[in-house]
Amino acid sequence: MYVPSDDDLRNAIERLAVFVAKNGPDFEKMTMDKQEGNPKFAFLYGGPFNEYYRFCVEREVQKIHGPPPPHHGNGMGPPQPESEFMRRMNSQKEQLRQQIIDSERNLKAHLDSIPAMKEAQVAQAVVMSESQKMSQILANVNFDVAPLGAMLDQLNGGKCSKDLVSTSRKWIFEHCQTDQLREVVLTYLLSRVKDSQANDNFRLNVLYIINDWAYQW
Question: Which residues of the chain are modeled with pLDDT < 50?
C-alpha cells in the first residue's frame, strides 16, 4: 500500500474518507461524478493511492460502527478459543445479570409484603394502645387485678376447669363492691377477650364469667 508523501494529497484522501464513511457509497459516487477528470481525485478511480484511500475509508467506518464481527469458516479456519479475559468478563456479566434478577425479585417480595406489614403494625399499635389505656384505668382507681390476671392466664394456657372458673368468678364478686370497680373489671375482662393471644375456649369461659356476674350484679 502506497501512502502519499504529499501532505496536501494525504489530507485530501483522509478528509474524503471521513465523509464517505459517514455518508455512505452514494456520497462517494456523487464525488466521483463531480470530480471526474480532476487529477487531485485520481485516487478515487484507481492508481497507486486508491488502496490507501480504501484503507482510510474502512478505518473511519470502524471508528463509527465498530469493527466487523469475526467470520469463522469460509476458509478462515476454526474459531479461536475464548481468551481468559473474555471468559472472566462473560462470567462477571452473568453474575451481574443474576444479581439484577435477584434484586428485582427481592424488591417485588418487599413491595408485596408492605400491606401485610402495615396491617400487622396497625394491629400491634391497637393492642399497645388498649394495654396502655387499661393500665391507666387501673392506676386511676388504684386497683390490682394481678391475682385475677394470673387465674385468667391459667385458663388461657389450657388449664380449663370448673374450679378455676368458679375461683375467678368468686374473686370478682369479692373485690368488686362498687360500680366503678365493676366497670373497671368488666373493661379488663373484655380487653382479655379481645387479646390476639386468647384462644377460643378462654374467650368462651370469660364470657361465661361475665354473663354469670352480670346476672347476679
Answer: 85
Residue 87 and residue 51 in one domain: no
Number of domains in the chain: 3
Residue 76, domain member (yes or no): no
Long-range contacts of 58-67 (CB under 8 A, 24+ apart): 59/17, 60/17, 60/18, 60/20, 60/21, 60/22, 61/21, 63/21, 64/21, 64/22
Residue 89 lies in a domain: yes
In degrees, rounded to 5, the angle at the alpha carbon of residue 209 between the alpha carbons of residues 192 and 132 is 20
Q: Please give the C-alpha separations between residue 114 and each of 50, 125, 129, 157, 206, in angstroms, as whole numbers.
A: 70, 16, 22, 33, 35
Amino acid at 7: D
Model's pTM, two decimal places? 0.39
pLDDT in tens, 123-142: 666 656 666 777 778 778 78
pLDDT digits (tens, 9 = 90+) for 44-65: 998 889 999 999 999 998 988 7
Domain that holds residue 156: 143-215
d(CA 141, CA 131): 16
For residue 134, being part of any structural domain is answered with no
